[in-house]
Amino acid sequence: MQLVRHPNNPILEPIADHPWESRTVFNCGVINHGNEIVLIYRAQGHDNDVSRLGYAASTNGVHFERLAEPVFSPETPDEALGIEDCRLTLIDGRVQMLYTAWSPRNIQVGRASTTDFSTWERHGIAFPGPDNKDAALFPRKINGRYCAFHRIPKSMWIAWSDDLETWGDYTKIMDPRLGCYDDLKLGAGGPPIETDLGWLVIYHGVDQNLVYCLGVALLDIDDPSKVLNRPKEPVLAPEEPWELVGDVPNVVFTCGTAERGDDYLIYYGGADRVIGLATANKQALLDYAANG
Ligand code: BMA
Asked: Is 41 in the pocket of ligand 1 (CB under 6 A)?
């Protein structure tokens, strides 16, 4: 099973006229908003490595209109070196965003929320460092509690919360696998997708050569610490020139998926410089996650 790249790729690229996104636009959170697909994407200028978040929206999922200014930029000491790789989840009418907050001291997971993508409420650090990232909230409570993915090197973990504020019961769910595309480290993509067979997870795996691929797994719907299946082959590996060469070579990295009809639309960063789109038939991807 392989994801299918869209012929218009890459669908979003840096803009020379916008200093804050002149060098890179990549890993993006994804959410449906009205009849639009919204991407909240990571961007860097040529002046330094600090990442900010930009906004782009589209009705067809391929042609995106973006704003000229970032919608979320570093403000607190915890974010001094940048805001990276956000994941978006709609909960009770608010868009919840978990993001990597990078500072000279720490790499931690911050949380903020919004209803309109221009006004954000910051909720502080959700998961403390020293090297915690790749966090994504599940779209609903499980057995009365919120659940979220996060990454403590070099594995994928989940955490639990009654109120989105205080997190605990940290549980490791997936480790690197010897000889596989994810034998060095791994982390969540976007929020998991609820299906009849379980939580469908699209995640990134990194091998010993630092090649970033996308793979899938299936988790138990009532107990996501139980991995029901985890195919050994990736569903997307860097192949296109813009996936092989960029700010960091050999990277495909997703932070979110949208759904349109029978397809999943998987948005991903290519070589940490541009954004690509790959699609998969829903049933085919689920079959592979369950049986591959
Ligand atoms: C990870 C994150 C991602 C990035 C990837 C490849 O550690 O920093 O933002 O896309 O490395 O460089």
From this structure: no
